[in-house]
Amino acid sequence: MLSKNLKYAYYPGCVAQGACRELYLSTQSLTKALGIELIELKKAACCGSGTFKEDSQLLEDTVNARNIALAESLDLPLLTHCSTCQGVIGHVDERLKECQSTNPDYLNKVNGLLVKEGCSPYRGSTEVKHLLYALVTDYGLEEISQRVTKKLSGLKCAAFYGCYLLRAQKSMFYDDPFQPEAMENVFRAVGATPVYYRGRTQCCGWPLSSYATNESFQMAGNHIQEALNNGADCIVTPCPLCHLNLDSRQPEVEKVIRQKLDLPILHLPQLIALALGVSPKELGLERHIVSTKPILEKLGF
After folding, report:
1. 5-127, CATH topology level
2. Top-level CATH class of 145-297?
3. Which of 217, 229, 293, 297 has the most CB within a 10 Å radius?
4. Taking the model in full, what pTM does it have?
5. Residues 195-234: pLDDT tens digits?
């Protein structure tokens, strides 16, 4: 079994503490079941989900340098379960690490603003890592497989990576940004069957939803329909914003595409925790807009 103790500075983000509370609950349940310790960064700020830089790159960098510095003060990696947060904070971390050698004056400006507000300066001494990659690279698929008490045999899972997790940063150390396999490998580790389809690495449409709603819902509908056509019992996503567009808005999506869908959308930690024997209620599976009952019935819960 696992010989080392894994510990992270936990950045839950905004959506998991609000509209997708079940993601927060299931992450806590999963990491507890695996023996992973999370130190929640309760003083962390919203990453901005890519909107801060529309007004000011300095604003995005300073806010997220502070978030990273909170993890650095604990000498821990920053862990998030939100692909959007990973993309934004990870990209800031990448950019500021480059500035240490290429543009120290800019980094000094960022740190000057932090120190002025009584915050610790950014040092570039840690890393930003999504829960998916912490599980795959730090914990290990074999270790996860050994912890499985209820194999998800017969469950056909379609991954929906979204765009921020794969391509927001210049370097992707853990997976191929265009042909990823990390989630599919997790599915195999818990006994489920991966379903491949074209839209799994594309945008869910969420960023368009506030000003091009029909186009956003058409994108989401196309992805869900494609997953269904390929035999999926559910879509599994590592991003709560993708979850909102694919699950919470699925009834509206159906009206736009004039097609009944009814495909359950799971958060990644919910799926894994089910295989570890955590109860559906503890994982908040009753909170979804699209009922998860067909999945639970198929698995014998």
Report:
1. Glutathione S-transferase Yfyf (Class Pi); Chain A, domain 2 (1.20.1050)
2. alpha beta
3. 217
4. 0.95
5. 999 999 999 998 888 889 999 999 999 999 999 999 999 9
